[in-house]
Design brief:
heterodimer, A: 1098 residues, Rossmann fold, Dimethylsulfoxide Reductase, domain 2, Barwin-like endoglucanases, 7-stranded mixed β-sheet, B: 217 residues, mainly alpha, 1% strand, extended
């Protein structure tokens, strides 16, 4: 019988009831947001700016007439095939080659595999040969490819503005060395970034030998590793911790964003996920306590989260240490700590119950005392040597930037060589580095960009990208990894080791030979073979640093914390200002990278901007909190929105007499009087991406308070700024999107996700379908009740994906990996504001606080902004629905199914009606409103006569296996169809050549989508559902599997594994259910009440 | 007042309609014929920088296709030979021929020989040579009897319809893998071809894609 499935009409109670909310203004139901929800595309998205229809017709008529005269379209252009003169070993035209390399970043390097097409790197993946990372990679590693093809990079060596040729620059470097060689380096100073390169360390020894009186300074504006002073004081040596999260059942993070901001974050995230992943009710699950001032990715994963100013972390650590160790001497430091003692007591008890399997980690920005106390707690819990291990960091040989500044001020520096970095932009403000640098007689600057520092340097030496360089580096655990060039330096850039070798007057300055000597030298006669193996694997076998056994020295701790006093409470007049490295542009080094700028911050969801983050309470005290909705107190001013976007209040932030002006973004989950200031924006160098984006916070930072400082104050200027805030985009109204449960509930009822959704009332497959196996279900001919006829699902593979929401940390690596793989363009700030960003995968971030309910509507709960929300993230890409709503409305059959269950998009057939995007319930289709690939940002509106064409360099980043889409075409995720097809073909070819051409089913794991391959926590499973042993089938067979909006009968091929939280019942902030569930239960009380909790329907 | 229009004008509407139909028909027929690959592509035989004769090398001398197009079994792209490949023989044979000056120049300097591309598919079509030649589709199916051409000519339309003809009926076009580069090979009879083709389709699990994702990405 024909059955019509409709949404049950919402009850009045439901309409008024709580729902997921993603921004503060959504929660307060502002009219601007409501208006936006009602529109398919955000305001202004479908109108052409500055050109009216009449004018448009005129221009088009003129261009048609002109086009007709030349009849250019009637001739087929002649194309050539250009084979090599001599065959190149290993190069097969049409097939990519993969080489091992590594991306150096500060004191670690990330091993990678680079995919090259005819000598041009187009994609980076993690090197699977490096076991601790298992082939995953990070957001910045993915995006670093685009830096190689950045048209704004330094393209020439210059001296006083005049171009230097290759020989000229090398002579110049040698001359500097020769000049100072006579006096032992007096007056010579080097300023470099930190590095993990063994070759650089070796050359540094030679440099010191030649210039014993020269100074070598290393400076990094942000720290991603704890200072060594703590371990020197309490562990008796310069040791660097390596945490083993997979072994830790209980984790306490002391203001440490170990999932994204630490040097070892990628390793930590993967290990953390291993301890958190739950496939069946018998699996264990770790528990994370996060105490933090900012809302970080780590905090969003926490089972218990405590907001606390960074300045009070010492007090908290002391209080926790007092509980864990029972040592009363800590309590003095914890005086005045405004945290419930039960919270600390229960947390400490939980740690004590897991001795040797717990872990306390402190953020790198925290002072040595906190780290020392964290070591003390770990020592008391027996974690040292189990979950916390140490490697020897060696002696600290570099002087600090402050010392160098003093030397310059004293006039003892005549020649300053700046290797990388960007001190004019990011040195502490109290040093006034720009004028210091001007006062030095000769400044030689080696850098990738001609940036702020280069502008004040006499000689500029262009640097090579790491994908153009020979080099080496060390990973977190000390393993030596190879850096190999994929391409000749595009602009003749030099590598850092070559520059140092030339300055040091080495006879050998070829970077390849320098690295060869470092690696092969110690191996003696086997050197050549060792080096060849090293380049092939990308990793030097057995080169990891030895684990150092440590003993905790409590006397050292007592000396360290002696005389410290607790920090007084903060207030509106005495704000704590915390400087953080931006999630995307880091300390500013990636600021000119369009992929990163366009990618939204994982928490604030701001793109192309940074903002001072303030807590809701502070916003309220300043009188700028969003007012409650129409039904409550006052309507929010319509002027608050422009093109549907947040108009942020501008404010002046004063700290220690220094001022900056910046927009304020109200961010829930912050410590009340801590304001977060992201670094890395407001660049003034001449880059087409980074210029005039965001504000520069470095002018506030002083060498005494590099990470956080008290005494800040904010004053509104009265101005407003429209923010490119992507959380407004593609809103799905609050329903049971992320389905969550506590671990204890899951153990009783693993199928909890099936009981939350509306499809528990309207089973998608019906009673017959529920009895079928997964493989049978996906090959059903899905007619539903539709007249539309789908193709038969009779392929030998049926592709599907499963995303584990328990482990997904929302880091955005998949977003940029997808962008790189699929030639997704960037559209610029203005177009993001209009809602036209092109990402095929996005990460929705939801807040829920559990307090709002229907009865309280109009009451206090809805009028005040929550301060302690739980965060749920959900990656959304095309779901590849079996009954896809988009296909039914396409008038030209441009989007239809293939026989393997992919919802494919034929770009060359698309005429751009946008019906499909209109009909997509997930809002995952993206439309090319302009020729993003043909025009640069800023010239979209200039009509047919405007400047066209992208720099050749940018085109080189494109993946040749994917069509570059033009204006007027719809696009979306295809499960990386190019990888699927190539994988199938390669498998069939292999089987045919092996004599078994009948074997056409590709084994599980051979084909990986770009998002799956990059995922640091391995949350994405992809593969063939017909194979019941494939990873994706096993994931989908889990009871907590569910489909998003499955009650629409779309039969999505991408399904989710419900999110689990593991709170501690003994904690004062324990909730029976995740807060989103509490809201959901209340919303659906009327329908679900009779069934009761925990009832298992099987 | 006299009539403005003669009486014959009464037939004009009908005449206009008929005229439009005829004109439309001619236009449709013209476009169908003159603007499809069958007309625009077939017969395209540009002058190449080197007067290389496939008829001589592949036909008369019997050099296998894969001697020069060496990666066709592994790569999506069937490579044109490097000048070095030519010089394997021509350093001995006709070593001083002026016709080969371009090739020698390429070999010495590394500058490519600018061969004119004949069998060119649009950028949004991802044709893969390796999968076809490995699964019993002969070169001749798309390129014709290249072994009989002095100047390579575009022999088949290579339109989407042309591809689909074969993808819908693979049995009529498959041959033993050993005969793929033997352009002269033919099954003894159409019946034998059909029987053999069916067998291959079954044994090799041949399921040529007929949906967009097979070729468009």
């Amino acid at each position: 019988m024909k059955r019509k499935i409709e949404h049950p009409a919402p009850s009045a109670r439901e309409l008024a009831g709580p729902k997921y909310w993603r921004t503060l203004d959504e929660l307060t139901e502002t009219p601007g947001f409501k208006a936006k929800l009602e529109r398919e595309f955000p305001d202004g998205a479908s109108t052409l700016d500055g050109v009216d229809r009449r004018q448009f017709m005129k221009i088009m008529a003129a261009s048609f007439a002109l086009g007709g005269v030349g009849l250019a379209g009637c001739r087929r252009p002649e194309a050539n095939i250009l084979p090599f003169g001599k065959s190149v070993e290993g190069a097969i035209p049409g097939l990519p080659l993969y080489y091992a390399t590594a991306m150096p970043l500060r004191r670690t390097a990330l091993p990678l595999l680079a995919e090259t097409h005819q000598g041009r790197p187009t994609k980076l993946e993690g090197n699977p040969g490096y076991a601790p990372l298992g082939g995953v990679s990070s957001l910045t590693a993915q995006a670093s490819l685009l830096d190689l093809y950045d048209p704004d990079r330094a393209t020439a060596h210059t001296a006083d503005g005049a171009r230097l040729d290759d020989a000229g620059v090398k002579d110049r470097l040698a001359a500097i060395g020769a000049k100072h060689a006579g006096n032992g380096g007096t007056g010579l100073a080097f300023l470099a970034e930190t590095s993990s390169s063994p070759t650089r360390a070796r050359l540094l020894g030679r440099l010191r030998a030649r210039f014993p009186r020269a100074t070598w300074t290393e400076y990094e504006p942000v720290s991603d590793e704890p200072a060594l002073t703590a371990s020197a004081a309490v562990l008796g040596g310069n040791f660097r911790p390596v945490y083993r999260f997979a072994k830790a059942k209980r984790i306490v993070s002391l203001d440490c964003d170990f999932l994204s901001a630490e040097a070892g974050s990628l390793y930590y995230a993967r290990e953390f996920a291993r301890g958190r992943r739950v496939a069946s009710r018998d699996d264990g699950m770790n528990r994370l306590y996060a105490i933090e001032s900012n809302l970080t990715l780590t905090g969003s994963m926490a089972d218990h989260r405590l907001r606390l100013a960074s300045g009070h972390l010492l007090a908290f650590a002391s209080a926790l240490a007092a509980q864990v160790t029972g040592d009363r001497s800590y309590t003095a430091l914890a005086d005045g700590l405004d945290v419930k003692p039960e919270w600390i007591a229960a947390c400490a008890a939980d740690l004590a119950a897991n001795k040797g399997a717990s872990l306390v980690i402190a953020g790198s920005h925290l002072p040595a005392e906190v780290h020392a106390i964290a070591h003390a707690i770990n020592a008391a819990l027996g974690n040292l040597g189990r979950t916390v291990e140490f490697i020897d960091a060696g002696p600290v040989a570099a002087t600090s930037l402050t010392d160098l500044a003093a030397a310059i001020r004293a006039g003892s520096v005549q020649t300053l060589v700046i290797l990388g970095g960007n001190p004019v932009y990011n040195a502490p403000a109290d040093l006034d580095w720009a004028s210091l640098q001007k006062s030095v007689g000769e400044v030689v600057r080696y850098s990738y960009y001609a940036d702020e520092t280069s502008a004040l340097a006499g000689v500029q030496v262009a640097a090579a990208h790491y994908l153009e360089s020979w080099g080496d580096g060390r990973t977190l655990d000390g393993t030596i990894v190879a850096i190999q060039p994929m391409i000749q330096p595009l602009f003749g850039g030099l590598t850092e080791i070559e520059v140092i070798a030339r300055l040091a007057g080495e006879t050998e300055s070829d970077p390849y030979k320098l690295v060869y000597e470092t690696i092969a030298g110690p191996a003696g006669a086997d050197g050549a073979a060792v080096f060849r193996r090293f380049l092939h694997d990308g990793i030097l076998a057995n080169s990891a640093a030895a684990i150092v056994p440590v003993d905790f020295d409590s006397a050292g701790l007592a000396r360290l914390i002696k005389g410290l006093a607790p920090v007084p409470a903060f207030s509106k007049a005495n704000l704590e200002v915390r400087f953080v490295a931006d999630h995307k542009v880091d300390d500013g080094r990636f600021a000119n990278n369009g992929w990163l700028q366009e990618c939204a911050d994982p928490i604030t969801k701001l793109a192309w901007d940074n903002a001072i983050l303030i807590s809701p309470r502070l916003a309220k005290e300043m009188g700028i909190d969003p007012k409650a909705s129409a039904l409550q107190i006052a309507r929010k001013d319509e002027q608050t929105f422009e093109k549907g976007q947040e108009k942020a209040y501008m404010a002046v932030l004063t700290l220690g007499g220094r001022k900056i002006t910046a927009p304020l973004h109200i961010q829930v989950g912050l410590s009340n009087y801590t304001i977060i200031v992201p670094l890395g924006y407001g660049r003034t160098m001449n880059g087409r991406i980074c210029r005039d984006v965001g504000f520069d916070a470095y002018p506030l930072r002083t060498s005494g308070a590099m990470h956080f400082a008290g005494g800040g104050s904010l004053a509104l200027t009265g101005e407003r700024r429209t923010m490119a805030d992507t959380q407004w985009h593609w809103s799905m109204e609050g329903r049971e999107l992320v389905r969550e449960a506590n671990f204890s509930e899951y153990q009783e009822n693993p199928g909890f996700t099936k009981e939350i959704g509306m499809e528990s009332e309207t089973p998608v497959y019906g009673p017959e379908g529920d009895a079928m196996t997964l493989a049978q279900r996906v090959s059903l001919e899905p007619r539903g009740n539709s007249l539309y006829q789908n193709p038969k699902y009779d392929g030998v593979h049926q592709w599907g994906m499963s995303i584990d929401l328990t482990t997904c940390i929302g880091c955005n690596a998949c977003v940029v990996a997808c962008q790189s793989e699929n030639n997704i363009p960037i559209v610029g700030r203005d177009q993001v504001i209009r809602g036209r960003s092109m990402h095929w995968i996005r990460i929705d971030r939801y807040y829920s606080d559990g307090k709002i309910d229907a009865a309280a509507f109009g009451g206090e709960a809805n009028q005040t902004l929550p301060e302690d929300p739980q965060i749920s993230v959900q990656p959304i890409a095309c779901m590849q629905c079996e009954l896809a709503p988009c296909e039914m409305v396409c008038p030209v059959n441009a989007t239809i199914h293939d026989e393997e269950g992919l919802n494919v998009m034929a770009y060359n057939r698309c005429v751009g009606t946008r019906y499909c995007a209109n009909n997509c319930p997930y809002k995952v289709r993206r439309f090319n409103y302009f020729d993003w690939n043909l025009r640069e940002i800023g010239s979209f509106y200039e009509g047919p006569v405007g400047p066209k064409g992208m720099p050749e360099l940018v085109k080189m980043a494109k993946n040749p296996d994917v069509t570059v889409r033009m204006r007027g075409v719809m696009e979306k995720c295809t499960y990386c169809v190019q990888r699927i097809e190539n994988g199938k073909i390669q498998w069939k070819v292999k089987m045919a050549q092996a004599g078994t051409p009948g074997e056409v089913v590709v084994p599980d794991g051979h084909i990986k989508t770009a998002c799956q391959q990059v995922c640091p926590v391995e949350a994405i499973a992809f593969g063939n559902i017909l194979d019941e042993n494939s990873a994706v089938s096993r994931a989908k067979a889990q009871e907590k599997d569910y489909g998003l909006l499955a009650y629409l009968n779309t039969r999505p091929r991408t399904t989710y594994l419900g999110r689990l939280r593991n709170p501690n019942p003994a904690m004062p902030d324990y909730n029976e259910m995740p807060l989103s569930r509490i809201e959901h239960a209340r919303k659906n009380e009327a329908q679900h009440a009779p069934k009761g909790q925990g009832e298992n329907k099987g | 007042m006299s009539y403005l229009f003669p009486k014959s004008a009464n037939r004009l509407p009908l005449q206009i309609v008929i005229y439009l139909f005829v004109l439309g028909g001619i236009a449709t027929a013209g476009v169908t014929y003159y603007m499809t690959p069958k007309y625009t592509r077939v017969g395209y035989s540009p002058v190449q920088p080197v007067p290389f004769s496939h008829a001589l090398h592949a036909g008369q001398l019997g050099i296998d296709c894969r001697y020069c197009h060496s990666n066709v079994e592994n790569s999506p792209h069937s490579n044109s030979p490097t000048a070095q490949t030519c010089m394997n023989c021509h350093s001995q044979v006709k070593a001083n021929s002026p016709l080969l000056a371009v090739v020698r120049h390429s070999y010495e300097t590394g500058e490519p020989v600018p061969w004119v591309w004949i069998h060119q598919t649009p950028d949004y079509v991802y044709f893969n040579h390796a999968i076809h030649v490995n699964r019993g589709v002969s070169c001749v199916e798309c390129h014709g009897r290249v072994d009989q051409m002095d100047v390579v000519t575009h022999a088949k339309p290579l339109s989407m319809g042309f591809c689909l003809d074969c993808h819908r009926d693979p049995a009529s076009h498959l041959r033993p893998r050993s005969e793929v580069t033997n352009l002269a090979w033919q099954a003894p009879s159409p019946q034998a071809q059909a029987a053999m083709g069916r067998q291959f389709v079954h044994d090799w699990n041949v399921r040529p894609p007929q949906s967009c994702s097979g070729c468009h990405r």
